[in-house]
Design the sequence.
């Protein structure tokens, strides 16, 4: 798990940020503080407003109203060299060779020639692309191009790194490689914002989660706190007896529902019953191969939030539209 | 600034330092030029198989047929072709008649083999025409029929003023008989009639030629440096040449800018760039880069033109100050056109979609092509003056005026330059707004109305 804030200034502060495109309100009253050194996950479905928020943070587009500061400056324009950005819509110069492309991007970020060649080749070696340095970008596979783009976003050693859907299109091996690199960069003190619509990815990588839905922030907490707030209400049971039926399970006091799943049963508990108490009751009545608390995934939490009309959005904002 | 230059250099290098650009921009035109200068005259000289056939004559005067036959013998035609060039001596201004003859001779590289058959004064022209209806000119046979009026040489008729009124001749030819052969036959008949008339009037054709021919020495232009031969048309060619040179550089630079912008957008590299530089820096850097490409084109082709003038010892026709104005007006015209191209490139997703938005830009580019001739013909006229103050074509039109014989007053040049500077800034600002919005817009390409909305919105 990545480290939390390092106790310096906040890397990003956003207050009452709004952005519309015609009739569509892409971001509504966004409030956000990202402490320096943290690894924040921006999660939410496609079209939730994550990329728009990121583009405003990057000063690529500008808010209709609201205030933001990035690395202590009023706008990212003033601190572009200190920020690394891997956009969702990314590409390379197809006809350019890999090494010159990385060097070009580094120079645009203010890196001088001194030691640049070494730094670029080191990075290529680290991601396993040492052999393709002299190849044209168009000759690389999509995954390879993505790694080149990642290098281009970190080559200048940014203080703030924003990664928008960095794993899309990567195979599991490269996904793991990139995940390890992100952790390593965060461990060195770089603040990272990581945006994804695949919530399991954020769950694996981040300890701070910002959930965005319909242009609003609906959740903003450390992952542990989120899990503790959304109490587990279900158990996963693998009985010794494969022929166990639903009635046998629902007859146990405190069991509201029993649903068959791949390896056994998902048991939904009645409100107020502690999971430990329920496990004890079930284990005493059913011969059990394995039983565990089903931890709510971010996806479960997200669905629970957006389906709950009474849920109050984070930071005392308006209620989420159902 | 440093980043802008970085973008500019990449833009220039990725365009101009490529095999495609070097081959397409310089090697191919050079090869074409060499072919035109060396191979083309050789190829044109060989006209193919000589035309062979018969020319029938109904000579109602009864005195011309033999002379015409003599004039149309291959030997006489060959001699005439060889000696003609000597008639037009260097420095002589040929008469319109001589010019026509010169052209005809130039066309007739292969001497036709013609035989003349006199059909008799009383022959029926309608019957004589029959052979012309058979076969083609290439197959030979009777190629032409000349019917000469009886009073073509001697006449009793006079006009009201007492001047003799002679008869004429009429030529009938087979379809598709070469113009050069027709011209040869006509010339032989006309010469024959003319000489017969002169002799009949008791005049020597040589004397008449000597009396009617007026030779003129080459016109000289008197300059501060001395005298030089005046070349007719140069006063028109020079302004046109400057405008085309400028136009070519602007067009090529602008077109490349459009292409690279669309490429950056479609390959999605643009958002990565925007994380490092502002849209204005990106656009300005790209414009600068392609300005260098346009400048390179202008320099290379301009140098070829200047080399031509050096060879022709005409270097003094260009005032060095003209070159300074050329550079200034080129830069300003380029900024306007390139800004529009960049705006269009940022608004579309692929080149195909750019076509409809390019129409108004192309219309602007075409206007100078239509206007340069009237402006060059009367560079101090009201029309030319107005055109040279009217953006966005004023840069081109002022350049035409500057390169013309009647150089405009310096204040006019400076006003035009000022107008170009202001319009360049306005176009650049408007384009930057479209560029900023358009770069991140994907999907349905916008129309002109949407672009105007973007300018207001940004």
Sequence:
């Amino acid at each position: 798990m990545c480290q939390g804030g390092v106790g310096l200034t906040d890397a990003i502060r956003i207050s009452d940020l709004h952005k519309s495109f015609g009739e569509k309100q892409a971001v509504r009253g966004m409030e956000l503080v990202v402490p320096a050194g943290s690894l924040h996950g921006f999660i939410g479905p496609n079209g939730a407003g994550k990329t728009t928020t990121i583009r405003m943070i990057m000063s690529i587009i500008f808010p209709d109203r609201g205030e933001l500061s990035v690395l202590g400056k009023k706008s990212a324009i003033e601190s572009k060299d200190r920020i690394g950005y891997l956009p969702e819509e990314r590409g390379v110069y197809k006809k350019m060779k890999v090494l010159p492309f990385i060097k070009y991007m580094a120079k645009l970020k203010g890196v001088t020639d001194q030691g640049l060649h070494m730094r670029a080749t080191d990075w290529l070696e680290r991601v396993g692309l040492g052999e393709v340095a002299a190849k044209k970008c168009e000759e690389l596979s999509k995954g390879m191009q993505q790694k080149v783009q990642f290098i281009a976003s970190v080559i200048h050693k940014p203080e703030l790194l924003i990664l928008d859907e960095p794993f899309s299109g990567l195979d599991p091996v490269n996904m793991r490689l990139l995940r390890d690199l992100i952790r390593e960069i965060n461990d060195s003190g770089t603040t990272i914002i990581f945006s994804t619509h695949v919530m399991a990815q954020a769950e694996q990588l981040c300890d701070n989660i910002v959930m965005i839905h319909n242009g609003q922030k609906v959740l903003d907490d450390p992952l542990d706190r989120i899990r503790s707030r959304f109490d587990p209400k279900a158990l996963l049971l693998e009985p010794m007896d494969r022929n166990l039926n639903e009635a046998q399970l629902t007859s146990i006091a405190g069991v509201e529902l029993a649903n068959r799943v791949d390896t056994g049963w998902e048991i939904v508990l009645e409100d107020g019953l502690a999971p430990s108490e329920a496990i004890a009751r079930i284990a005493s009545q059913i011969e059990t191969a394995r039983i565990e608390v089903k931890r709510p995934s971010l996806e479960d939490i997200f669905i629970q939030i957006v389906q709950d009309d009474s849920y109050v959005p984070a930071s005392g904002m308006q209620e989420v539209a159902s | 600034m440093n980043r802008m230059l970085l973008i500019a250099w990449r833009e220039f290098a990725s365009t101009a330092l490529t095999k495609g650009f070097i081959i397409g921009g310089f090697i191919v035109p050079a090869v074409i030029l060499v072919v035109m200068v060396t191979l083309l005259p050789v190829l044109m000289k060989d006209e193919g198989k000589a035309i062979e056939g018969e020319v029938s004559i109904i000579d109602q005067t009864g005195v011309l047929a033999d002379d015409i036959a003599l004039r149309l013998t291959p030997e006489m035609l060959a001699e005439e072709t060889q000696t003609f060039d000597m008639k037009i001596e260097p420095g002589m201004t040929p008469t319109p008649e001589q010019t026509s003859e010169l052209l005809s001779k130039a066309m007739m590289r292969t001497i036709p083999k013609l035989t003349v058959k006199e059909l008799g004064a009383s022959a029926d022209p309608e019957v004589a025409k029959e052979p012309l209806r058979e076969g083609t000119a290439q197959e030979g046979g009777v190629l032409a029929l000349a019917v000469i009026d009886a009073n073509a040489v001697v006449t009793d008729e006079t006009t009201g003023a007492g001047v003799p009124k002679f008869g004429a001749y009429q030529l009938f030819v087979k379809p598709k008989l070469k113009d050069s052969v027709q011209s040869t036959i006509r010339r032989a008949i006309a010469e024959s009639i003319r000489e017969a008339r002169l002799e009949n009037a008791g005049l020597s054709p040589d004397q008449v030629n000597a009396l009617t021919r007026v030779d003129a020495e080459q016109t000289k232009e008197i300059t501060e440096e001395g005298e030089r031969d005046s070349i007719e048309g140069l006063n028109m060619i020079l302004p046109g040449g400057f405008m085309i040179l400028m136009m070519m550089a602007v067009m090529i630079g602008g077109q490349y800018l459009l292409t690279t912008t669309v490429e950056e957008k479609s390959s999605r590299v643009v958002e990565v760039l925007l994380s490092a530089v502002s849209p204005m820096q990106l656009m300005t850097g790209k414009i600068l880069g392609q300005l260098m490409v346009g400048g390179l084109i202008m320099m290379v082709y301009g140098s070829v033109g200047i080399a031509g003038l050096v060879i022709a010892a005409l270097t003094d026709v260009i005032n060095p100050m003209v070159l300074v104005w050329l550079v200034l007006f080129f830069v300003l015209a380029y900024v306007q056109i390139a800004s529009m191209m960049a705006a269009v490139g940022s608004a579309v997703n692929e080149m195909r979609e750019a076509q409809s938005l390019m129409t108004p830009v192309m219309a602007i580019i075409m206007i100078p092509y239509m206007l340069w001739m009237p402006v060059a013909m009367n560079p101090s006229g009201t029309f030319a003056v107005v055109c040279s103050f009217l953006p966005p074509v004023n840069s081109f039109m002022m350049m035409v005026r500057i390169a013309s014989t009647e150089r405009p007053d310096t204040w006019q040049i400076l006003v035009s330059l000022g107008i170009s500077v202001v319009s360049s800034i306005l176009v650049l600002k408007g384009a930057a707004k479209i560029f900023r919005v358009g770069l991140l817009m994907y999907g349905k390409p916008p129309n002109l109305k949407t672009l105007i909305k973007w300018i207001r919105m940004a």
Notes: Chain A is about 30% helix and 25% strand. The two ends of chain A are 33 Å apart (CA to CA).
